[in-house]
Amino acid sequence: MAFVSEIHYRDDVATSSGVPHYVEVAVSPDDLGRLPQFELIAYAADGSIAQTFSLSDYAGVVDPVTGWTIFQLPVRLVADPAPGQIGGIAFVDFGQDQVLKSFYALEGSNMPATATEGPAAGYFPIPLFSGSGETIQFDAYGNQSDGPMTQGAAPICLTQGTLIETPDGARPIETLHVGDLVTTWDNGDQPIRMIHSRRISGAEYAGDRRLWPIRISSGALGFGLPERDLWVSPQHKMLYCHIRIPLMFGEDAVFVQAKSLAASFDRVHVDSSRTSVTYFHLVFDRHEVIFAEGAATESLHPGPEAIAGLIADAREELYSIFPQLRMGEARDPADFLTLRSWELRTAVA
């Protein structure tokens, strides 16, 4: 089974978030072998075909919750299409004798006419009425609702201005380049294979607490670490050492998500004072522990959740460097156990 699951159509959201318009298609695990049979066909206002998108030409991301694979296609659907713009979309399953699964258009004074070409020929599109949400979303039965944009959510990364330890001393993360060496916990100096940054501001930032950084105050982790205040995304993991960790978990150190630290430490909290943030991903040949403001922390570990949080351009870049990830092949697991929030609270109580 496959269906159109989301349409990111609003210009104000695209401008404030930096995420281009897209149409998202969800494909069940049982139908991944039929990707060449699924196509999204874009229609112009006069009902002619403007462009065709085959799912097999795009990289999908597995949703860690449902197990379905999500494809986000670079389609800009507009309510009042001018010549050359896309006014309607049809999703087709050519593996079932050209089954037209859906044919949609945004409600407007210049909605596309009855389709004159392709599998939707002779059909008039179902009008979609824009609402207050950032996107139009659908369930598997075609029921429509408004919701938040799903692309780029829950970043796992460091913020601009963070000092990263290198063989030549600490450097702000925004001054690093692909190929530069970074000091690691147990693997010497390693070259950066990929860097990606994203600035989040405006309505997207103000309305989504998942995007607000966690501030780890200087010395909050003990042993004088971090050496300066450190801002990271809520999902980002810090390496944590405490006298009780070996006794309780049999490990010398453990990973702890920043949001778990905020729930357990007085000097770690969600920073609600900011109006924007720029996040950075650092990717190496393997999942590394590096040093940010002197404190041990993780590089990007591209598992399903992290990959799902990347925007399309970053995901394609990651796949070009590590092509095995496109096929669902996992990279080496993290070297350290990750504690849950209640486990951390028990350890430091």
Describe this structure in words.
By secondary structure, the protein is mainly β. It is 13% helix and 33% strand. It contains seven helices and 26 strands. It has helices spanning 11-17, 202-206, 244-249, 258-262, 304-308, 312-321, 341-348, and strands at residues 2-8, 22-27, 38-43, 49-54, 61-62, 69-73, 88-93, 99-106, 126-128, 135-138, 144-147, 158-159, 163-166, 169-172, 181-183, 189-191, 194-201, 214-216, 230-232, 237-240, 254-257, 268-270, 276-283, 289-292, 295-298, 338-339. The strands form eight sheets. Strands 5-6-2-1-10-11 form a six-stranded antiparallel beta sheet. Strands 4-3-7-8-9 form a five-stranded mixed beta sheet, with no helix packed on it. A hairpin with a 2-residue loop joins β13 (163-166) and β14 (169-172). The longest helix has 10 residues, at 312-321. It is elongated and about 70 Å long. The mean pLDDT is 85.
The helical percent reads: 10-25%
Briefly note the structural class of the backbone. Answer: mainly beta
What strand order characterises the main sheet? 5-6-2-1-10-11
Span of the ends, CA to CA: 49 Å
Q: Quick one: biggest sheet? A: 6 strands, antiparallel
Q: Please compute the radius of gyration using only Cα atoms.
A: 23 Å
Number of helices: 7
Q: In percent terms, what proportion of residues is strand?
A: 25-35%
Question: How would the global form be characterised?
Answer: elongated
| Strand runs, count | 26
| Poorly predicted runs | none
Let me know the average pLDDT: 85
